Amino acid sequence: MGITTALNGYHDGLDSARTTAWYTKKCKRPCRLYTSNEIPNNEGGDNTKTVNPTTGRLCEDISGQRYGGLTAIRPVGTGPGGVVWELQCDCGSITTATIKNLKRGATKSCGCNIWKYAHPIYDPYRKCYVDDYRGKRFSRWKVVALAKPTGFRKGHGASWLCQCDCGSVAVVGQSELVSGKSRSCGCLVKEHCIAANLKREYPTKGDIRAADDRLYKVWGSMKARCNNPHNHSYKNYGGRGIKICAEWNDDFCAFKAWSLANGYDYDAPYGQCTIDRIDNDKGYEPSNCRWVPMKVQSSNKRHSKIEH
């Protein structure tokens, strides 16, 4: 026999003692069942009671009271948090919540206030609502509109069409904007590199002579062989005491000036203008270096001299 049958039997005038005994056994405690027409006056010392239609038991009457943006209408059941009430939200929708969540402020609306404060917009590409970042700035990026995710950005949040302060436009992922991983189209990094290179008086791409990049690489490789223990050639250079003079080691411009004055050729084919140490047991310094073809440098190696 279910609870509905028991209630119907009780209210139809059947054996009330038998029905009450059954419900008492089911609930492990004695109780009195009511219908909405049988609410007793001043039972328990107050008149703020109503009937829960699911159980037939009395419960606190909060109909008409407001909780945040919700207005209580009537009880409709029970749940882990007590009696469940039907409520109307200020936006017009109908929702339900337990009296426990209403009184402790956990439920204040049907959910419409969440979207209201987040200012959501619909993303047609991901088919969901997302926070509105249009018009916001992230470093040099200004968000213009939603964009279709491409490549690795698929499945990694919303994508936005952004315009950089330099005028270029690109699609940037929302996570990259918020985390600061993307701050510009790349112009910011270029400016930082140029500023750092100018401070050190090093050549940069786009300088008056693009060939300076080639001479700069020669200077960098020379320093790596002598100063970096992790370089694969370190054992034959820095590992056996080959050093670079302080003038060249600290200043590329000094190395460049010496190179141009001592035979370095910008237009020389590969292998026809290489730096060579006259004495293999001494380091890189103006008095011990020269620019020669690779064939001459090969004949000046240690093993070549030993063979002769």
Sum this structure up briefly.
The chain has 308 residues and is an alpha+beta fold. The chain is 31% helix and 22% strand. It folds into 3 domains: 34-113, no CATH class; 119-188, no CATH class; 203-307, no CATH class.
Please name the defining characteristics of this protein:
disordered N terminus, 308 residues, rod-shaped, four-stranded antiparallel sheet, 22% strand, 14 strands, 3 domains, alpha+beta, 31% helix
Describe what you observe in this structure.
The chain has 308 residues and is an alpha+beta fold. The chain has 3 domains: 34-113, no CATH class; 119-188, no CATH class; 203-307, no CATH class. It has 11 helices and 14 strands. It has a 4-stranded antiparallel sheet with strand order 3-4-5-6. β3 and β4 form a beta hairpin. The longest helix is centred in the C-terminal third of the chain and has 16 residues, at 212-227. It is rod-shaped and about 105 Å long. The N and C termini lie far apart (113 Å).
